Amino acid sequence: MRRLLALDDDTAVVIRRLACTEPGCPPLETVIVVLPMEGEPRRWTVRRAPEQITEDELRTLLARAPGGAT
């Protein structure tokens, strides 16, 4: 994430693997949060476990506005 977004070392990146409890949702989802020192945090949700997400999928995800789930 840090490399794909060209983030500096002062920007926090949190990647969490969570159980999804919404109807029709797979059992695991990944939430990615970028917390810059200045500006608004950005958040993405991928409805798969982190180890199943490819770099190409991350590039596509990051091209979209934060907030939506894929």
Care to describe what's here?
With 70 residues, the chain is an alpha+beta fold. It has one domain. 13% of the residues lie in helices and 30% in strands. It has one helix and three strands, in the order E-E-E-H. A hairpin with a 6-residue loop joins strand 2 and strand 3. The longest helix is centred in the C-terminal third of the chain and has 9 residues.
Name the features.
single chain, 70 residues, alpha+beta
Order of helices and strands: EEEH
**What spatial form do the alpha-carbon principal axes imply?**
globular
Largest sheet: spatial strand order: 1-2-3
Mean pLDDT rating: 87
Oligomer: single chain
Strand and helix layout:
Layout: E1 12-19, E2 28-35, E3 42-46, H1 55-63
Antiparallel strand pairs: 1-2, 2-3
Question: Could you write a compact summary of the structure shown?
Answer:
This protein has 70 residues and is an alpha+beta fold.
